[in-house]
Amino acid sequence: MTDESNRSETAILHVEDNPADARLLEEGFSAAVCNRLHWVRDGAEALEFLEQQPPYVDAPRPDLVLLDLNLPRRSGIEVLERIKRDDDLKQIPVLVLTSSDASNDIEAAYRHHANAYLVKPVDIGECESLAAQIERFWLHTAKLVQPTDDI
Q: What is the C-alpha separation between 83 and 75, in angstroms, rounded?
């Protein structure tokens, strides 16, 4: 399989309640190679997507999760805890992508096994740069577990 075909199969789940922030990230990733960015609006919807519950029964298993902390219905920390406790999901890298740079939020995210903590960019240029860095490192440089039938 070529590098180009691996890129087209990459799936990222973006969990973000703010449509403007979601759109900014989508634009940032459109400049990068990854083109399978899936957006959900809250923590409960994220878990439905990850667990392939209705209406997401055909959702792909994401290669990466970008997770906001301040979400309705279930907080980002609750979603992170659930992912990292689940044997089928815990190997998916979760990058907290939030507006908070408060030390207690950073500590809580890492305590619950976030793979990275990133502060949201404020403009499209910063977002394109961040998207390219995420894609380059997490989807091309880092070696991730590939899902199999028994995972």
A: 13
Which pTM does this prediction carry? 0.87
Q: Provide the CATH topology of domain 3-140.
A: Rossmann fold (3.40.50)
CA angle, residues 84, 143, 132, in degrees to nearest 5: 95
Interatomic CA distance for residues 134 and 64, integer angstroms: 10
Per-residue pLDDT band for 79 (boundaries 50, 70, 90) equals very high
Sketch the domain layout of the chain as residue ranges. Answer: 3-140
Flag whether pLDDT at 132 surpasses 80: yes
48 contact partners, CB below 8 Å, separation of at least 6 = 40, 54, 55, 56
CA dihedral 25, 30, 33, 35 (to 10 degrees): 90
C-beta of residue 63 within 8 angstroms of C-beta of residue 92: yes
- Sheet containing 94-98: give its strands across: 37-40, 12-15, 64-67, 94-98, 116-119
